[in-house]
């Protein structure tokens, strides 16, 4: 079973609408990314902060759960979005290179270039969220095979 993921910017009070959406990246500014789960997000979190993995994982508890469909919505912490927004593209690519070397990404066979592109996109999205006074959310939907 795969995981369809949309990472978007939205207003804090739009959590329920995001959770009810079938494709949030079409309704809000965002990107589509397969197989980005809370472990990968927590790993990125650790690279951007001094937090250990346990602290980072606790920051990605779902803010919305639709058990019947398996949809989860997570909120990316402001400090992570802020750090992503501050980094220039070259620095984001370095973070992506380091992230690609972690077990969370290596085990799933992610190419360094793919991870770098994802981190650069996250940086752009974080800057957009900051400029619009919004926050970043991660919408996850399991794909049934």
Q: Work out the strand percent.
A: 15-25%
Tally of discrete structural domains: 1
Q: Fill in the CATH topology.
A: Hypothetical protein yfbM fold
Q: Which assembly state applies to the chains in this document?
A: single chain
Order of helices and strands: EHHEHHEEHHHHE
Report the average pLDDT across residues: 94
Q: List low-pLDDT spans.
A: none
Number of separate strands:
5
C-alpha end-to-end distance? 6 Å
In words, what does this structure look like?
The protein has eight helices and five strands, in the order βααβααββααααβ. The chain has a five-stranded antiparallel beta sheet with strand order 2-1-5-4-3. With 145 residues, the protein is of the alpha+beta class. It is globular, with a radius of gyration of 14 Å. Helix content is 50%, strand content 22%. It has a single domain, classed as Hypothetical protein yfbM fold (3-Layer(aba) Sandwich), CATH 3.40.1760. Helix 6 packs across helix 8.
Summarize the structure.
50% of the residues lie in helices and 22% in strands. It is of the alpha+beta class. Helix 5 packs across helix 8 (112-131) and helix 6 (89-100) packs across helix 8 (112-131).
